[in-house]
Structure formats: C-alpha cells, structure tokens
Amino acid sequence: MKKKIRAIQYGVGPIGASIVKLLREKQAVEIVGAIDIDPAKAGRDLGEVAGAADAPWGVKISANAKEVLEKSADVVIHSTSSALPRVMDQLLECLEAEACVVSTCEELSYPFRTYPELAAKLDAAAKDWGVALVGTGVNPGFVMDKLMVTLAAVAQRIDHAKAVRIVDASKRRLPLQNKIGAGMSVEEFRAQVAAGVIKHVGLPESVAMVADGLGLPVDQITETIEPAVAQERVQTEYLTVQPGQVAGVHQIARGLSGGNELIHLELQMYVGAKDPADTLELTGKPNITLTIPGGTPGDVATASVVVNTIPMILDAPAGLRTSRDLPLGFFAPGAKP
Amino acid sequence: MKKKIRAIQYGVGPIGASIVKLLREKQAVEIVGAIDIDPAKAGRDLGEVAGAADAPWGVKISANAKEVLEKSADVVIHSTSSALPRVMDQLLECLEAEACVVSTCEELSYPFRTYPELAAKLDAAAKDWGVALVGTGVNPGFVMDKLMVTLAAVAQRIDHAKAVRIVDASKRRLPLQNKIGAGMSVEEFRAQVAAGVIKHVGLPESVAMVADGLGLPVDQITETIEPAVAQERVQTEYLTVQPGQVAGVHQIARGLSGGNELIHLELQMYVGAKDPADTLELTGKPNITLTIPGGTPGDVATASVVVNTIPMILDAPAGLRTSRDLPLGFFAPGAKP
To answer: In chain A, which among 221-280 make CB contacts under 8 A with chain B?
Structure first.
C-alpha cells in the first residue's frame, strides 16, 4: 500500500477551516501540519480552530511556516490572501519545500496578463523544484472559466461568451454580507469600492482564461462594480436592508477586442436575490446555454474544488498550472492513496 | 513558424464528412489523406464526397489504409464503427504509423470494463509507438460522462449521479430517424432491439467513466432499451408516426452496487420529443443540477468534440486516454500550429 498524501494547510481562516474539515474525510490524505500567523490560532489544535466535531486532531497550528514546511508534505493547501504579490513569498517557500500547492489566491488562478513576471517566476521555481502549483476555487477556477472552456468543447465557432452568476447572499455568513456592502448607503458603497474594500477578486482572471481557452482575441479587459440597490426591505439573520440601501454588488468584467465585447462575465451577489443561478451562454455555432439552477453553492464548493484538485496537481507536470490545464474531477473520500 | 498538424480522416461517412469540413476551418490543420473502403467513395476527392462548398480539396480518398498512413500524419481522425473489436486492426495500424488517434468509436470511449484486454493492447501499442489515442464524441465522451465528472469538482460527497438526455429526432436526418425505429410497430421495434440493430452504443461506457470518476463502487452495469411510443401523430420531413407506433428509443443504463442504483443514465431520443434538454443531477453534498436547455445538438457537437480534442491528444502522454483524463476545450479556428 502506498503511503498517504501528506498535506499542510497554510492559512486557517473560514475557507481554510472548511478545507481542512473536508480533507479529514479523505482516507488518502494525512494532515501533517498547519500554518497561521494569527496569535489567536498559533499553538492551538487545528481541528479545534476549524470547529471540527472530532477535534482535537493532534495537529498544532504554527506561525512558523519554515518549520512546518520541513515536514516534507506532498501538497500545501494555501489560503491566505486574494492578492498574488502579497503571497509570492509564501508560495515560493512552499515550492522550495518541494511541495505541490493548491491555492485559493484568486489572482493566481490565471495570472499571465496581470502579473506576467510573477507567473514566470513561480513557473520557473516550480520547475526547479519539480512540483506543480495552481490557484483555483469555485469562482475564479470553475463556474465562469473552467466550466465555460469545457462547454466550448461542443462548439465549432465561438463569437461571444457570457456568464452570469446570481448569488443570494441572504443565507451566507455575516462577514460576506458585510463584504458586499449589504445595508450601506450608495454613497458609502461607492467610497468602499474606491478604497478597494468592496470587490470580488478574480473576474479579470476568468476573462483572461476564457479568452485564451476560446481563442478570442481579447486586447482589453474592463471591470465595473456597481451597487445592487434594494427595491424592497430585506431581512437576513444578521441585518436589515431598507429600500434604497445597498443589497450587494453587481460586478461585470468584459473582454474586448477593438472595443467590441467578446466576453461578458457578470456577478450579482446581494441579499434577497431572486432566482439565483449560474448561466453560461456561448454564441456561435451552435448557440448553447448551460444553467445551474440555484447556482453553485460558493461556501461548500470552494473547499470542494480546492480539495478535488489535489490528485490532479500531484499528477500534473511541474510548473505553474491553471484549472484550464487540469482534467477536473472528484476526489472520492474512499480513494486509495 | 511550426508546421501544420497533419491529419488523416479514416472513414468518410456522415460523421466523417462533418469532421473534415470542420477540420478545414482550422488554420493549424492540413488534411493530408483520407481512407474509406466504400468503392463509391475511394478515388474521389474528399471535399466532394463530404459535400463541401469549396470542393475539390485536392485530397483523394483511398481504400488502401496502409498507403495513406505512410504520409506520416500527426493525428488520425477515425470514424468507422461503434464496435471496438471491429476497429482494433484499424486503430493498431494508425498507432504503428506513429499517429495519435481521435476516434468516434463509442466502445473505445471507456473500454476498461467491457474490453479490458483490448484496452490493454491498445495502451501498450500506443506507448510502444509514443503516441496517444482516445475515443470521444458528444455522447459518450461529453454530455453524460465528461461533463458529469467535471461538475463533480464542486462536490464534497456524491451519493448518486443521474443524467437524462432528451433529444427531439424530428429535425435529424432520415438514417437517424430510421435507426431509432421511428414509425415501426412496437413488435418490429423489439425484434430490431433483440437483433442488436436498434441501440445507442456507449451508455455502459459512460456509466463506467462516471463510476470511476466519481469513485462510486459500481459492481454491475445494466441496460434497457424500450420503445418511446407516440401518443399523437408526428410528422417529420421524412416520415409519419401514428399514435401507438414507435417514435424512437428510451434507453437507460444503470450502475449498481449490491443491487442499489448509484448511477442512472437515460437517453430519450424520439421524434416529437417535448422539451429536449440535457440534465445532470448529483445527489450528495451539495445537491447540484446542471441543465443544457434544448440539449447539446448531437449532429454539430459530435464533430466539435472530436476536432476540439485534437490539440489535447497531441499534448497527452503516450497511451490509451479517455475524455476523463483530458482537459477539454476549444480548438480555435485561428489557432497557430
């Protein structure tokens, strides 16, 4: 029998917590370490911090990444920040420890346009150490980009690609409702957008992946963030939004060629959203539409996509990969190591 | 500039014809030969036989496979039969010519359960010659299997997988309407099923791929073929179906574990079908449904999937591959060789 996949969790925030709980269900995986710089977490048991029913797990969280990475993991699950420049040192440290990396860093999902130098640096380092890394998640990483490129397999000609993801944030946790500006005035919302606080990160990365995956000659990527304003009173478990107040975000990224739109990716995430769904539309030959009624549940599915990517990244050639390159699938709980 | 991908078409039936017309639109591809044993086709121009508007193409169809395969193609598009045992020699001949193969042979799409020895033989031969082969198409190859496995990337736990594909055959060509038994009596239909004439090939292969891709412990695969009986008169361009006559097929393949159904793949293909659609349902955590309203158009999409798979099979490691292993996508017409 082969030995288990040795995994380290890097970052134990809400997403990291849901990832490790899912990792524990995979018989093929052994969690050998966890890293978090938060003094409130370092030194404590990973299972306890993650809120696992079967805690303690006997795995201590440590703030000392270097020390934890010496445990020679096969894979590091990295979940600390959306911004690629902020996590470069963390990623390089993992690669130097000869571990593959699956990261939730949105800007890593398809970094070739925004950060070509950083992408090249990571690719070179990964090849030097003989390991592979990928940034993924449900969005970016799946709904608007990977699924679109997969659907494109049935097309003979593609003129335009559109994805609309409508998420009802009413049932999501409070930090998310706050993050999308629910309950703010329109003015306050715009100030938060200008300050870079309110923003779903990753749409331009998805546009870039779709452009390359569909061979669409996109020469410019634009992005707008507008408030979704409540038409009627919305009450969630945590807060109330009055008519005229902000219910959430309405964000659109476009891929243009000579000013003409070829790609349109739209995220509507607000409390009280009617008919949540993910819808993809390819215009060309043939025209084809794909719908996920209710929408891919972001809370569950982010951890899923990340954990399900582990077998694929361990199998991938060394270097910087994207979800576009990987044959996604399911990491069965009972799968043998 | 790299040289173009040299392609040979093996089999110039209706599907082969639609494949070569699509191939001609790809700037990166040069069609260097074509094989068909039909005396009505051999010796004629490929473009003319395919019914291309820009015929003649200056590519002659030949009945002599060996001779054509000496043109050292990078890839052979193979489209002669649904039955793997019948095409083994053809496939081996292509591999020996050191060409990758994309085949529409349904039983090649996932042959490991039904024909493990043949699969092993093809895998070994492909590795010997340093090339890769794959069987694919819209179904099997995409809708009920590859797309299902891709969708599974958002799942944490999967208890059951279901796919229903409803195709309205009214607008399809006459041979297809005949093939599904449209206009027959129920008795005649059952005789044709018993004789193995009426059957969509490939559902058990899709069940096997889904079972492996989703880690479901399927120990038995069953298949039923029933007539879809017309409730009212249906008139197509080619034929009329009276109430009580057969309108087409209703075929179900199941993956069982100890008698319990884990996988249910259902194909309804009949003239006058209401609400054609492809619907996938994963039950587990989370429950998730995906719909393609109107359904993936089989006539267009089979050629699409086959041609779009060419760049992936050229990039794949040597051996027998399946659509499950390949990161499907789009082969852009303007893509560079």
So the answer is: none
User: CA-CA distance, B132 to B117, in Å (whole number)?
Assistant: 17
Each residue of A273-312: b (16+ CB within 10 Å) or e?
beebbbbbbbbbbbebebbbebbbbbebbbbbbbbbbbbb
Number of Cβ atoms within 10 Å of the Cβ of A54 = 8
Chain B: closest CA distance from residue A170 (Å): 18
- pLDDT value at position A108? 98
Six-digit token pair at A161?
């690609």
Give the single-character DSSP code of B181: T
* Whole-number percent of chain B with pLDDT over 90: 94
A215 contacts B332? CB cut-off 8 A? yes
Beta strands in A157-270 (DSSP E): 157-168, 220-229, 234-235, 240-241, 246-257, 260-270
Indicate the residue of A147, A300, A334 with minimum beta-carbon distance to B215. Answer: A334
Q: Can you give the pTM of this predicted structure?
A: 0.97
Kindly report the backbone phi and psi dihedral angles of residue B200, in degrees, each rounded to the nearest multiple of 5, phi listed first. Answer: -85, 120
Beta bridge mates, B102: B77, B134
What ipTM is given for this predicted complex?
0.97
Taking only the tens place, the pLDDT of each residue in A26-80 is 999 999 999 999 999 999 999 999 999 999 999 999 999 999 999 999 999 999 9
Residue B299 CA to residue B21 CA, distance in Å, equals 13
How many Cβ contacts (< 8 angstroms) between chains A and B? 152
Q: Can you give the length of chain A in residues?
A: 337
User: For B23-40, what is the HEC assignment?
Assistant: HCCCCCEEEEEEECCCCC
Give the closest of A152, A156, A291 to B291, CB-based. A291
Is pLDDT above 90 for B175?
A: no
**Residue A77: which of A66, A63, A91, A67 has the closest Cα?**
A91
Residue A175 is predicted with a pLDDT of 84
The answer to whether B153 contacts A294, with C-beta atoms less than 8 Å apart, is no
Closest CA to B266 of B134, B255, B258: B255
Handedness of CA B210, B215, B216, B220 (dihedral sign): positive
**With contacts defined as CB-CB under 8 Å, which chain A residues touch B324?**
327, 329
Segment B43-76, tens digit of pLDDT:
999 999 999 999 999 999 999 999 999 999 999 9
* Distance in angstroms (rounded) separating the CA atoms of residues B226 and B148: 24
CA nearest neighbour of B166 among B40, B276, B46, B250: B276
**Angle of helix A116-129 relative to helix A84-96, nearest 10 degrees?**
10
Nearest residue of B to residue A292, measured between CA atoms: B290
Alpha-carbon span A268 to A164, nearest angstrom: 8
Q: Which residues of A touch B328 (CB under 8 A)?
A: 149-150, 153, 327
CA distance A293 to chain B (A): 7
Dihedral (C-alpha) B255, B83, B123, B38: value to the nearest 10 degrees? -160
- Cβ of residue B294 closer than 8 Å to a chain A Cβ: yes
User: What integer pLDDT is reported at residue B1 of this predicted model?
Assistant: 52
Full set of structural domains in chain B with CATH? 5-137+300-321 (3.40.50.720), 146-295 (3.30.360)
- Residue A315 exposure: Cα atoms within 13 Å on the Cβ side: 16
